Structure formats: structure tokens, C-alpha cells
Amino acid sequence: MQPKVIIHGGAGSSLGGKGGVEVVRQSLYQIVDELYGLLQNNTSALDVVVRGCQLLEDEPRFNAGTGSVLQSDGQIRMSASLMDGLSHRFSGVINVSRIKNPIDVANSLQASPDRVLSDNGAAEFVRELGLSVYNPLTDKRLNEWLEDRKQNFSRSMADVIAESPGTGTIGVVALDTEGRLAAGTSTGGKGFEKIGRVSDSAMPAGNYATGSAGISCTGIGEDIIDECLAAKIVIRVTDGFSMKAAFERSFAEAHEHKRDLGAIGIDANGIIAWGKTSDVILAAFHDGHKKGDSLEVQKGTQIFVAE
């Protein structure tokens, strides 16, 4: 099987706050190159997805791991999930703090009988794993929170997603040489949310994979949850829709419902796709022959499918 990989660093209305198109493209392509190299060396899709999420979490430009946004009380709480398409196994961690890579916790939970943990339970599991204490806060995020606190947190969601460097859920979908699929998604949340809010990134709504397709979503979490977007697309492919038809139907529905979101995916035939209702989605991929991205696609609802 020709391996394939696609990643994303969020969605929103502008690239201006992230350093511009070329800076973001260079960051995404560097990660895509490493992941595709791993796939060529017969690394499993699951391991490639974990590695990709780690790299994206470590990039302060995106809102996951280092550079995560602060919640209303000034704390960082992160969420991530991982799904192995071969075993149809989902695992996730919700609102975990003071670690470098939440995707590592989700990966460790793949072998657990209790595969989704939150808050205190997640913190206890982190201690059991012996993960080092890490502060993902950046000066940019702290200053952003302090400024918005002066304004009683009046920033709009569109600004939070797109304009601040570091914002945007991250995700990876991979197809390996054995035809196995996996998907992973990680986020620092939407910023300034109420304590206890749960993002789509640790739900099948935002991250889902089977033997038929794998999907990772980004955008406003509540919109993704309302559409149950990742699972919806995968189920449509499983039920016989082509990847293109599954994306077209799902994004037409999202557009009709005025959702602000995006998704990336790969199916079992190696067809790569991304879609958005937001103005931009920060996606990049390797189709086995060349790299490509979504960074200069026109505003509005768009679908891309590499047949």
C-alpha cells in the first residue's frame, strides 16, 4: 500500500497572526516530511499519528501542548484522543494539565480497560505513568489572557481561533504500508471557556478512525459536536459513500447549519481529503508523490479530494 499522511494545525479566518502563509507552510511541511519518512520505513499508522501529534503539540504556533490557550481561571487544560482504525479502539484524555504531550496519555490509554479519563482521574494516571511535570504556557498566551481579562474576556471565538499565534486544534491522519489507518487530535481548548468545558477533540465527534477511513476535525468544538462530524464522515464511507461524497454531504449539512469547522481525512484506498466551512484550514499532506496544502484556498465552504 502506498502510505499517505495529512495533518492540520487548526482553522479560522486568517493566517496573519501565525506569521503568514510561508511560515506556516514551512512548519507543516517539515512535520509532513518526517512523518512520511517514518511511513516509508514501515512505521505503523498509529505510531506515526502519535509522533505527528507530538510534533504539532511542540510547535507554539498551534493551540495544543506548548502554546495552549488559557481558560477563564488562567489555567491550561488540554485534551487529546487517538483512534486505531485496525482495532477500532478509541482512547482519550480530557482537561489534563502540566504535561508536554497530551497525545502520549491518550496513547497509553489504548491498552487500558478504561480508555477515556478526565480531570482528577487523568492527573492520577499521568502520575502513574511517571510523566515529567511540564508547563506549556508561553509568554504570548499569558499576555493574551491578561489583555482579554481587562476586557472581561470579550474576545470573539473567530479571533481566538485564527488571529492569535498558537491557536488551532491539531490533528494527524495516516495510512501505512500495511493499509492500516489511525487518527489523532489534540487541543488546548477554545480559550477563556468555563472550567469543566469538554472539547470535541477527545470525542468520536472530533476524531474517529476505522478500517474504512480516518478523520480529524478542527474549528469550534461545539459545532463539531453538534454535527458529530468525524464519526459521521467515517460511517458514510463505511456505508458505501465515496470519500468525496461523504465530505460533500457532511460539509453541505454543516454549511446549512452555519457551523464553523474543518476536517482532514484518508480512506482505505488512500484517498486524501479535507474540507472547511471556515475561511481557512491549516492542512498539509503527502500523497506518496508530492506535498500539498490548503493555505491559499479561497474563503468559504470548500472541499478538496485527491483521487
How does this structure look, described?
- It is a single chain.
- By secondary structure, this protein is an alpha+beta fold.
- It has a single domain (4-306), classed as Glutamine Phosphoribosylpyrophosphate, subunit 1, domain 1 (4-Layer Sandwich).
- The protein has nine helices and 13 strands.
- The strands form two sheets. It has an eight-stranded mixed β-sheet with strand order 4-3-2-6-5-1-11-12. A five-stranded antiparallel β-sheet has the order 7-8-9-10-13.
- Helix 1 (21-40) packs antiparallel against helix 2 (45-57), helix 2 (45-57) runs antiparallel to helix 3 and helix 8 packs antiparallel against helix 9.
- The longest helix has 20 residues, at 21-40.
- It is globular, with a radius of gyration of 17 Å.
The main sheet comes to: 8 strands, mixed
Q: Write down the overall geometry.
A: globular
- Which sequence of strands runs across the widest sheet? 4-3-2-6-5-1-11-12
Structural class: alpha+beta
Query: How big a fraction of the residues is strand?
Result: 25-35%
Helix content: 25-40%
What is the CATH class name?
A: Alpha Beta
Low-confidence stretches: 156-167
